[in-house]
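Lecture 7 notes: from sequence to structure.

We start with a single chain of 189 residues. Read the sequence below before looking at the structure.
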Amino acid sequence: MKLPAIFYTRPTLTVARDLIGMHLVRREGRKLRIGRIVETEAYQGPRDLAAHSARGRRTARTEVMFGPPGHAYIYFIYGVWHCLNIVTGAPGTPHAVLIRALEPVRGIERASGPGLLCQAMTIDRALNGEDLRGNRLWLERPEPFRSPRVARSTRIGIDYAGDWARKRWRFFDAGSDSVSAFRAPRQRV
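Now the structure, written as tokens:
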């Protein structure tokens, strides 16, 4: 069952944590690619200096983040990788959750890291702004649901963000081998 719109309107840290164990589904024609979400990071602009929307920066690239919750914000990084974020919160509040890693369920290999995840799921900027209740890309609660052992740590690769780099806004399934290679000290939540 697809996650309802109300799921994405809750506090961003709650959404980031609750996405662990959900399925990300990508449909291309008759082909389905499915992965179990095992790692996320929360970003809460405009105060969060690690967010693309830091200091209220509103550009053509970040516009989706300012829109309604439950949509895909996809950006291109390092000239190589696409990254998928889920817009959360109220319209005008640029919060999002980065999906960092998936366990294979159907039609994909291990997808550890946000760029490899998008590559495995064939997600690119053509899906930027996609409503996650649509038919090409969505999130769902699997049945039966396997409860994850959720742990948290600091976010990865944002040392430039000062104190914001020390926020423990990275959530992951401590029992999954598909979590990114970088393993910060774990704490259960």
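Strands lie at 23-28, 31-44, 72-77, 81-88, 95-106, 111-112, 137-140, 150-153, 170-173, 187-188. Keep this in mind for problem set 3.
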